[in-house]
Amino acid sequence: MTDRTMSAAPVPMKWVGPISISGNVMTGLQEVPLATYESPLWPSVGRGAKISTLTERGIVATLVDERMSRSVLFEAEDAGAALAAVRALAEHHDELARVVSEASRYAKLLDVHHQIVGNLLFVRFEISSGDASGHNMVTLASDRLMDHILRTVPGLAYGSVSGNYCSDKKATAVNGILGRGKNVVCELLIPEQVVRRRLHTSPQAIADLNVRKNLIGTMVAGGLRSGNAHYANMLLGFYLATGQDAANIVEGSQGITHAEVRGGDLYFSCTLPNLIVGTVGNGKDLAFVAENLQRLGCIEPREPGENARRLAVLCAATVLCGELSLMAALTNPGELMSAHLTFERKDPR
Amino acid sequence: MTDRTMSAAPVPMKWVGPISISGNVMTGLQEVPLATYESPLWPSVGRGAKISTLTERGIVATLVDERMSRSVLFEAEDAGAALAAVRALAEHHDELARVVSEASRYAKLLDVHHQIVGNLLFVRFEISSGDASGHNMVTLASDRLMDHILRTVPGLAYGSVSGNYCSDKKATAVNGILGRGKNVVCELLIPEQVVRRRLHTSPQAIADLNVRKNLIGTMVAGGLRSGNAHYANMLLGFYLATGQDAANIVEGSQGITHAEVRGGDLYFSCTLPNLIVGTVGNGKDLAFVAENLQRLGCIEPREPGENARRLAVLCAATVLCGELSLMAALTNPGELMSAHLTFERKDPR
Amino acid sequence: MTDRTMSAAPVPMKWVGPISISGNVMTGLQEVPLATYESPLWPSVGRGAKISTLTERGIVATLVDERMSRSVLFEAEDAGAALAAVRALAEHHDELARVVSEASRYAKLLDVHHQIVGNLLFVRFEISSGDASGHNMVTLASDRLMDHILRTVPGLAYGSVSGNYCSDKKATAVNGILGRGKNVVCELLIPEQVVRRRLHTSPQAIADLNVRKNLIGTMVAGGLRSGNAHYANMLLGFYLATGQDAANIVEGSQGITHAEVRGGDLYFSCTLPNLIVGTVGNGKDLAFVAENLQRLGCIEPREPGENARRLAVLCAATVLCGELSLMAALTNPGELMSAHLTFERKDPR
Amino acid sequence: MTDRTMSAAPVPMKWVGPISISGNVMTGLQEVPLATYESPLWPSVGRGAKISTLTERGIVATLVDERMSRSVLFEAEDAGAALAAVRALAEHHDELARVVSEASRYAKLLDVHHQIVGNLLFVRFEISSGDASGHNMVTLASDRLMDHILRTVPGLAYGSVSGNYCSDKKATAVNGILGRGKNVVCELLIPEQVVRRRLHTSPQAIADLNVRKNLIGTMVAGGLRSGNAHYANMLLGFYLATGQDAANIVEGSQGITHAEVRGGDLYFSCTLPNLIVGTVGNGKDLAFVAENLQRLGCIEPREPGENARRLAVLCAATVLCGELSLMAALTNPGELMSAHLTFERKDPR
């Protein structure tokens, strides 16, 4: 039986690349899919991808950390009771870990943090979630952890299974500081001649622009851990094409571009501490998603977590390609607008 | 000729509602489409929509402001030259307005703001953009404004046509303070009995949770103007279904839920200062988008801007529906998880 | 020999109180000194102090945590080298702890956090520092830790002994999330009649104002963990009177007031996660400071840290007194201004 | 009659300099006083001051803007009523300006901004305040404005005379974006040889450290418009010595250091958008304060505002001196700690 109210929003999708990638997760050339209404994104990422193939090591992608988080909220009798509860949780860490493991065989409790505000107690659980992005896994685990804690720790009442100290899909600092999702650093060393011939600019121009726009410009805007030009664009396109919960681009967009001139060449890096991606779970069973993940080499028989890590690295490298391309374009007056005019009209939609 | 590299990512889409809406832009009942991989979103928004129809005025949506922005970056000789330039721009506001109007017949210069950091000058142009979200319009206008300014104001050099004081798709404070996109406030007064019967909770429980989770929880997370539970989810679904640049959910997610008990009933409001939506431009010519906009009543022959304002109000009302439903669910232990388990399995994908 | 260029800025000082305090650090009545140019601060704090004595338990002050931090900055060859260094540090935690303990007999390494941005490695050391606020202790320890690390961990170069991930005297989120200084929660339950007679307002009026001004008002201002009315005023006065480095009011001001109506009475709390105070070190040997600390009961022969904890609790309780008084005043039109006019003229300077 | 409870906290004070200053407010050499418990601050600022005298133009200080602000809070019936009120205020700007001018002959209404959140209306009044920092002036004006508005604009009720959208002494973004206090940019061009001989470092080392520590380091810390090393230290010392309300270092600390290598020399700038200083008002009648202001040349018979502007520029230049000195020290391993050890022991207290 078909649900007649269901249909689909066919977002235009295109594969670009290949991107040359190395680092602690994968090595090789890989094309990537981007689904977006903003057609200039494809040639932009494509240009960055091409650059990556003209360098010695390609984009060196280093996976630094991975975890998914959920913060629950308890109402304590007072701050003293909240503090006593925090201490009880620390003493019974093994018990909490057992509850998490029982919620899912892929879930493992990594760490617990807390905040006390008056009599309110926020407890942030951090788990590893295998190949899943982990939203549901951590919610289920948190549900069970709350039950367990409310039964075993005195002085607490239920507040909420989500207390916003998680933080899911909101512009906060906690995710970058404590970790949420995959933390990936991508670095690319581009010979000066490649910068000049392919990007029509100089290493110094890009490094200077990065300081002025991405660091200082964001700072005067009252920005929060968001020192970049447009990570959100690449993340959206990649997330949609691979069945991710694209609302997580909110925290995903909070990353930092750092560029320097090194011996005349350009060192260009993108640090993405909050990539929330998975190769299993919601959205992954859609036919085109499964096909895309297949083509990305992300549903191979591997140890749990390996496929998701490969996906995260591909995503981060894609972000670097688009970031590099836009930053180069912005160093030249008029280039951004003419690119938009060209590609939006040529786009065969 | 077909581009064989092109395909589409068919994101599952469903219409929910109708929502009952009144206020300074539109009055009536309207269903809305949501494209998402997170199927529990549909019944969640649907529940909120149903509530809206059980109230006297429905969701009262007030459009407070609308503008699109782009900040350009100049390198001045020193801060003195930057200040002189700022004063020159103020004196020649009419000239700048003319340049903007010549860039597009729909564009109108509304305001100009600046920041000086050392010798760097960031100038933020704010324009009205008719029925377009205005990204391209404001970039084109900024391109021309920079040309004009570099020709007429001494002591400045080109820095970048985008200086991140815009701020586009990044977590900053400037958009909420100076404005970017449509600023819409949605309010709903829900009789106590409706809260109890339909949401299985009490007005006081929701008001208390809002303070503890959305206000205090976000605050301890180091949040930036993001006092809500999950605006990003509804925005993503609505943006994808209506051909919007969904990367703008980054700033769109920065809104505030405010709830209070009033005479025993529940006052529930969502303030969304940064809704970046349009009914013309990129993505709007796709067949399904045009059809959706048609069904939403947003491509009627009206004064420029009227269709986009209707779309913004529909979007904001959709956000309120989903926010209300999740907040209610979170007041009850276990409800969120069981809803996810129910709806993700029943979903006919 | 006297340095003739030296003199002193005699900031007007007054003792107010006593405040009634209980909780996990101290119990009793205590007057407190405030040095300030803003004379209305004294009667304001005095009024709050009086209220505390009219309640059952007085201000219940709970010390939640204490630590001092410094982040050093290394330049790594690349992110891979930075990650390898992070892992080496984790494996050699005991060695790092030994280095810290050798730097000062009062210093103890509590925790280590890091951030990797491109090839930059920020390492945040957290130590306990006995009765000292710990600025110098943690800097000395960090100096030695850097030496040790640069000798023993390959792939790193010196960046800076302070990398701003500390963060000292700057508006950031990291201190509230990871901890810096004493974390103290003060709570006061005030009978309705006391609120009405002494503060000329109602519990509901104060609770509502707190949500609207301190939570929502700060949020729209783009505030960062700063949900309060004027913590900075009390902190400055207390810090100056007790020889503290008052520039630390920058992070000290980042705290949250939470108020609710409970059974008709007023629950009023101030959470101050970043109180940086000490009873030994810079400034404490000045005669008037020593005398003030003496009178505060904070240079008694006790276990290391006990005196500083008492000082922190007294400071936090003082903050609550001033916060309560101002919040009450603001609920009544005209009261703030008339208080200023009264007290600034009556002040016998 | 003497108030026997009054005494004073004699904070150690020293004059350092002279600093060489030019720009749009003053030109010349001037010593400055700093009151602080942190004795290493004096030689640190002194070193920077000396550098300023070895350059061609000295510190070029540009006053960019000046205003004082207070936001009031109204409770409207709903967002529609709030919006109607905003429009009424815009239409009656001249009336509001008259009310402000009647509150004080020095007060002039510059601008009005607002935020609507649900039914809450925050209105931010910005005034010029002559030689006063303006706290009381703007509060008095706001009191009268509220009275006037509540009498003349329907649909509003009193909320609070301060709604935290001001924002006074709290870490927010609004002050930097809309302005609060004097906005001063200080720039210094230092010949390479001076950097090497006097600061024992290189222009490149300082420029690189600034990017890594002050921009990126602050960013990862979740910092808010706070790209500097230690503005708060100099601000505290200068504010205490000149009778300012030193709690305003909270917003004062939110400034940005920008440094670059120019033709081999060092361009070093400090941008301080929120200097809240005055030469009249609270604290200025204390004998030592009057003497200090006299010696600073800040109580001369000049046009209203001129003395305060001179004071702001002296303050900002002092900040640059200390910032430059610390940044230079941090480029050399061990220098910061040894400076502390040296100066804290030599200090004749």
Automatic annotation (TrEMBL), chains A, B, C, D:
- Name the keywords, alphabetized: Oxidoreductase
Q: Which Gene3D superfamilies match?
A: 3-hydroxy-3-methylglutaryl-coenzyme A Reductase, Chain A, domain 2, Hydroxymethylglutaryl-CoA reductase, class I/II, NAD/NADP-binding domain
Going by the entry's taxonomy, the superkingdom of the source organism is recorded as Bacteria
* This protein's record includes keyword Oxidoreductase: yes
InterPro entries linked to this entry: HMG_CoA_Rdtase, HMG_CoA_Rdtase_cat_sf, HMG_CoA_Rdtase_NAD(P)-bd_sf, HMG_CoA_Rdtase_sub-bd_dom_sf
Protein family per UniProt: Belongs to the HMG-CoA reductase family.
PANTHER family the UniProt entry points to: 3-HYDROXY-3-METHYLGLUTARYL-COENZYME A REDUCTASE
What is the name listed in the Swiss-Prot or TrEMBL entry for this protein?
Answer: Hydroxymethylglutaryl-CoA reductase (NADPH)
Q: Which organism is it from?
A: Microbacterium kribbense
